[in-house]
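Entry 14. Two folds queued back to back today. First construct below, sequence then structure tokens.
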Amino acid sequence: MIEKALSDADVELVTTLHGDEQVSFVVLMQPRGKQDELLRALDDVALGHLDQAVHEHDEHDGNGPSLAGESLEHSLRHLQRAGAEAVGEVVEQQPLVRLREVVEENRADEVLVLTSPHFVEEFFHRDWASRARHEVGVPVLKLFASDS
């Protein structure tokens, strides 16, 4: 599960986690919606990014799904270029339900949640990885996405 396009560093990280073993990915793109604006603004303040906190609401101009789709396609291309099998989808509604379905349909061995730090959500265990651990029935590994 990702929130933004994978960088080259992110792709290298996830494709090398299991050494030379062939891996495949089902990428679920969960764009952060309007309901998360306050939490993101608090995270920005905690990280000292005051300018981002002030402009947090400017990120969402109604083009979320197309931006999310472009980010997903970018990520899938990068994973495939790195030699991994990769398919994916944008998940707007009930992401944990869809994640559980994908794990069951694909008999997944583990779930990777690649995210930026979200201190407020993490403190209250409301981040995607914490919530997924109670839903999917396989190990959930939380990784922090590269800023590049």
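Second construct, same run, same settings:
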Amino acid sequence: MLRLAYPHDSFPDGPYERTADAVVEATADDRRLAATLGPDLDMLDTISDGDFLGASDETATLLLREYADEPYFRQIRGVAVVALYDDREVWELLGYEGPSFDQGGYLNRGFDDLDWLPEPRITEYDGEPRTELRDVEEQR
């Protein structure tokens, strides 16, 4: 289910398994959701002719979309998106170097070192002064 919701062909099983663990842990803190963990996941099997894992990606995606607004699945998404993309292995796979605050920020530490981005187009405005900006300056 997590691979369908957050598809990344290059991700190994580890990040998805840790995300599933985080979902189970988070739902355990909510008795109502914890009580429905098994039945709600079993429901996916029921509505997919007994084998959700064996369903095609297209069928499984349609089923998940149909139930996406159910409270339990909203809870799963809320936990999963944070758990998956806050995983250091995922950071490495995506080329994210992690937070930079403890290293002095990004400004002087490669904020623009992503080699897959095009070079930014930097132009200076050489028209008439904009009145809304001039009025702000005069008020100071």
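Quick look at the second one. The radius of gyration is 23 Å. The chain has a mean pLDDT of 82.
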